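Researcher: Can you fold this with zinc ion in place?
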Amino acid sequence: MSDLRESLESMVWQYGFRGVRDGKPVIHTGDMSALEEAFEALGWEDPHPVPDVDGLVCDVEGCMEPVSDQGYSWSWTGYWMVCGNHSEGRLVGKGQPEMKRRAVQRENSRDANGYLPSVSEEKKLSQGGIDGKN
Ligand SMILES: [Zn+2]
């Protein structure tokens, strides 16, 4: 059952509709019957809350919109993941707004190659150690 549940959740995350309700990020069925049945099978309310984490919710402080632009906007200061509204702001020349603490911490944690810590550790392992001696 856990594989089936994971598959169903994966499908819902891919095809569910993203939005903001009462100031909180959510995923919802958009009244699509297949998604309604999937939400019911998962025991999820509609809308279902989305955690404010990297890659799911916009990096801009105070914004709860879903991410639609990864790495384009203000790319000279970091790999920012922002919503359509903030991406559009960048396109019309608006300056970079204040970014969320979690996003700034993520970007500050990159190593000299631009890798995040976990990716960097995997890279070291795949190369048998960063200096080739391990
Ligand atoms: Zn935004």
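Model: Folded with zinc ion in place. The CA atoms of residues 100 and 128 lie 35 Å apart.
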